[in-house]
Design a protein that fits this description.
Blueprint (H helix, E strand, L loop, with lengths): L3 H4 L2 H6 L3 E4 L15 E4 L1 H8 L10 H7 L6 H5 L8 H15 L5 H7 L2 H20 L1
Antiparallel strand pairs: 1-2
Helix pairs in contact: 4-6
Amino acid sequence: MTYEKVTAYIPALEGGLDMEWIEDRRELAPGEPRHFPYVRYGPEVYEFLDSFYGIPAVTDYEDTLDELGLWHRKEGIYSLRVEETPGEIICGLFFRVRRAERFSEGSIWSFIDSGFALRCLRRLKALDGETAVQQA
């Protein structure tokens, strides 16, 4: 299995992707509603996440991550020993985070900004290296 399609984004994550929290700081008239803060993601963030489509991942990632105690707790995901995790589960994490963004603004931002996404990509690159050695 090769993860080159997604590990190609390692330099982009090391350099920082275009992500910005947008807050409504304008002066409001009485009774005028304030907008909730949200994250504006640059196109490269979406391209990066889209690059996972077509790569084998755990399709029942919700059940798999739940069995590992990682589904419902943000800390659970970040406490995963990435260096020991199979690539399919790591790819499943990216789908989980993308899905979480629908319900919790900033999930993708947190995943990338914390450096955890970069750790996951480095693991996938290491797995590619192991595969190349086994094939030689």
